[in-house]
Automatic annotation (TrEMBL):
Species per Swiss-Prot/TrEMBL record: Lentithecium fluviatile CBS 122367
Renumbered residue ranges of the record's region Disordered: 258-278
Domain CWH43-like N-terminal: 6-220
A biological process term (GO) from this entry: GPI anchor biosynthetic process
UniProt family annotation: Belongs to the PGAP2 family.
Superkingdom assignment: Eukaryota
Protein's UniProt name: CWH43-like N-terminal domain-containing protein
A family per Pfam: Frag1
Length: 278
């Protein structure tokens, strides 16, 4: 059943995050865009944390926690589905390592977000900023390694266009978020707090699209839910007969050219040709 499928998890996570951001932004606007006590001199645009620390702590903590916990579950599900063959299987130990690092980094980023909502910018400003950095860096590192894993998988499974699509989405997220995070840090250091606030809100909304994009990764599993496709079984058999530790690049050609053996319609005559026919 589609409504109970795996891709529901990242969509749910993304929508919870979006709902929280909209609720906070609308609340601040309806209140007349007030200048909170946590805002710096000359700052007129509130940070997300400024809004979250002013009466919206329960919403900020609860919805952020639900977002990252469900999103981290999506990472674990993706690993499990790939391991069981419901998604294109990993072709090397290194790809599994990349996936593992991605999961650990995502969990670290999630913990950072939960803690920054608990230790607000009013009473625990230094800790709040540390956890904010952990949140941003954690998910960027996670994106880098899952992007790396998908790039290697794409070499072997060129027929799986979803791998290419997901790779480019995650690469775009890395480049955009790194650029925005640098801009956010520089603006904050230079005292350009309104610019920094705009960049922070932008980073948060782009994070929504990043989380949402993971539903694409789960779409192939919809076709194999409850059973394993013949193609996937063949892929896994090839993986088991191949090299265990390399990233598979040396054997990539056989995966997207149909193998190393050519099919013939007759017997070979000893020189590699099938009596003039191939």
């Amino acid at each position: 059943m589609w409504f109970l499928s795996y891709w529901v998890v990242p969509i749910f996570s993304a929508l919870v995050w979006l709902a929280m951001l909209i609720a906070m932004l609308v609340t601040w606007s309806v209140q007349g865009m007030p200048k909170y006590s946590s805002m710096s001199e000359g700052q007129t645009i509130a940070y997300i944390s400024d809004v979250g620390a002013q009466g919206l702590e329960p919403l900020f903590i609860a919805m952020s926690t639900v977002t990252v916990v469900s999103f981290d579950i999506a990472f674990v599900l993706e690993r499990w589905l790939r391991h069981t063959g419901k998604l294109a299987p990993n072709t090397s130990i290194w790809q599994k390592i990349y996936s593992g690092i991605s999961i650990v980094a995502a969990i670290a980023g999630g913990v950072g977000l939960i803690l920054l909502t608990i230790f607000d910018c009013v009473n625990h400003n230094r800790l709040h900023n540390i956890f904010l950095a952990i949140f941003i860096i954690g998910y960027i590192v996670s994106a880098i390694f899952i992007c790396w894993e998908y790039q290697r998988l794409g070499i072997h499974f060129r027929e799986h266009s979803v791998l290419r699509t997901s790779f480019w989405i995650k690469l775009a997220f890395i480049l955009i978020e790194v650029g925005l995070a640098i801009g956010f840090g520089v603006s904050s250091r230079q005292g350009k707090y309104n610019t920094a606030a705009i960049l922070e809100w932008t980073i948060a909304f782009i994070y929504f699209f990043y989380v949402l994009s993971f539903f694409i990764d789960f779409m192939p599993a919809v076709r194999t839910k409850g059973h394993q496709s013949h193609t996937t079984e063949m892929d896994m058999a090839r993986m088991e007969s191949g090299t265990a530790m390399g990233d598979g690049a040396a054997n990539a050609e056989q995966y997207y050219r149909g193998g190393t053996h050519r099919h013939t319609n007759g017997h070979t005559n000893g020189n590699g040709y099938a009596n003039g026919y191939t």
